[in-house]
Amino acid sequence: MGSLSRTTLAALIAGSMLVSAGNALADFASGKDLLQWCNSNDYEKEKCLGYIMGVADMMRYSIVSGWKACAAPAVQVRDVTIQFLQLHPEYRHLDGAGLVAEAIGRAFPCQ
Predict the structure, then answer these.
(1) Rounded distance, CA 64 to CA 2, Å?
(2) What is the CATH number of the domain that holds 37?
(3) Rg (CA), the chain
(4) Higher model confidence: residue 69 or residue 73?
(5) Residue 25 lies in a domain
(6) By residue range, what is the domain housing residue 69?
């Protein structure tokens, strides 16, 4: 393989990595996505809980989308989030992390 071919191959690999990274960054979960995961099969339910607990863990140490919360059991945090999403269909198009933060922050405010 000549040096031009190696350069071309390197450029193609780098370009494909950038496209993949761009697609991953643009694919945030909405409230609609999250509610669908929470109401689906076992794998999707685990995805739901993992997403919610990721936001809950972040909230233990910092403010997320303007909300702060204190610790609560994982199942309770999931249930509060699902209930919030069911009660507010008008917000489901918004960013999932922000909606989880609001649901948890309202239910488990720090004293």
Answers:
(1) 51
(2) 1.10.890
(3) 19
(4) 69
(5) no
(6) 31-107
